[in-house]
Design goal:
12 strands
């Protein structure tokens, strides 16, 4: 594992910033209420657009060529995902019970390890593929948002029944 990067995101901010030696080299900006995000890494720009209702998938588009270059498929338990990017099959998974560690890996030797909270973390990688580094953060952000929406859907009816 060679490249050691860090990332930060404010508590109410929608942008992840990826740093190498204190210099911003990438960004992932979530677009609120639109199920999409824009990512940039070393000058390359990507768009992530999530579609579907019960069985959601996210398409990844290279903005410069306007071509779909990948797709993310999520599992029902929100613990794993499959990434099909540029003819590569790559896996994403949480590595601990508290969802503070996650990784991207495949049979060809790609390995990216993340750890952190909702506001900052570290990335260790054996690849410099910026799209994969961004995708690891995107999937985690997607699952955090789905968890939050589920909690809101469960607790609002309970709260409303106590007030009535």
């Amino acid at each position: 594992m060679e490249p050691k990067l860090s990332w930060k995101k404010g508590i109410f901010d929608s942008t992840y910033k990826i740093y190498s030696d204190g210099v911003v080299i990438g960004r992932l900006k979530d677009k609120a209420f639109s199920q999409s995000a824009d990512g940039e890494f070393n000058g390359k720009i990507y768009t992530f657009k999530t579609r579907g209702f019960f069985k959601q998938k996210t398409q990844i588009t290279d903005v410069q060529s306007d071509k779909v270059i990948g797709e993310i498929t999520y599992n029902t338990l929100m613990t794993k995902a499959n990434l099909a990017i540029l003819d590569k099959n790559i896996n994403w998974k949480y590595d601990n019970l508290w969802n503070t560690k996650w990784s991207i890996y495949n049979a060809e030797g790609i390995q990216i390890n993340y750890n952190g909270s909702s506001t900052s973390g570290k990335i260790e990688s054996n690849t410099n593929e910026g799209l994969l580094l961004l995708t690891g953060l995107f999937v985690t952000n997607y699952y955090w948002q789905m968890t939050l929406m589920t909690l809101v859907a469960i607790f609002i009816p309970i709260w409303v029944s106590f007030i009535s």
